[in-house]
Amino acid sequence: MKIKSQKDFYSGLMFALVGVAFAIGSTHYTVGDPARMGPGYFPLILGILLAALGCGILAESLLIETPDGDRIGAWAWKPLGFIIAANCVFGVLLGGLPSLGIPAMGLVVAIFALTFLASLAGEEFKAKEVAVLAAVLAAGSYVAFIWLLRLQMQVWPSFLSA
Description:
- The structure is a single chain.
- The chain has helices at residues 6-26, 41-63, 77-95, 107-119, 127-148, 158-161, and strands at 32-33, 36-37.
- The chain folds into two domains: 6-63; 77-161, no CATH class.
- The chain has six helices and two strands, in the order H-E-E-H-H-H-H-H.
- The chain starts with 5 loop residues before the first helix and ends with a helix.
């Protein structure tokens, strides 16, 4: 069978493989049943749904003709690097890295760093827009995680909250 859309084929394959991996990984936890869900129930259902979505996209890529075959272009290294770096920096700033002497800077600083670094992955950078977005994300995260979910995590750098 001929692949009629490369982009859809590889996207569907990726979704199916990640879904199967999550479904298999979730079986190491207690799954439970719909009335009494265990910690593995949600990842199992999500993995199955993701795998089913991937199979649907795979089937579409083999059945529906596209004008140019939707060829996959070159890798976008710049956005990939900035997005991965932004997530790594977020984790380090949120929890710190004691082995390297980097203290935890808290939720707000981590979100601002994540937003500014991830915005460098795009074609254009507008500092005012990114600052507004970061402020909205930080405020929303504070409300969701600290107020509503009552999670115990550092919000500000320790030298500011002391």
